[in-house]
Amino acid sequence: MNWDQVAGQWKQVKGSAKEKWGKLTDDDLTQIGGKRDQFVGKLQERYGIAKEEAQRRADEWLKMQQMENEPHNVGPRSTPSR
After folding, report:
1. CATH number for the domain that contains residue 52
2. Phi, then psi, of 48 in degrees rounded to 5
3. pLDDT (tens digit per residue) in 8-26
4. Boundaries of domain holding 31
5. d(CA 80, CA 21)
């Protein structure tokens, strides 16, 4: 998932953002709309962190979203030999 995909699926993923960053209001999340620059700006504003730190945290969150949404690859089951 990249930021373009986040924007397209924002309604589905904004709950995860709200869970991770409780200081973001519903209005903030609506305004963000999945846009990275808006997201970073709101993180800076609500958490009092530098732009670079907000970018790092936003990108970390995106990576976690990717990991949670990836299908888990399970190898072929081995059958016991007789």
Report:
1. 1.10.1470.10
2. 60, 40
3. 999 989 999 999 999 999 9
4. 22-69
5. 47
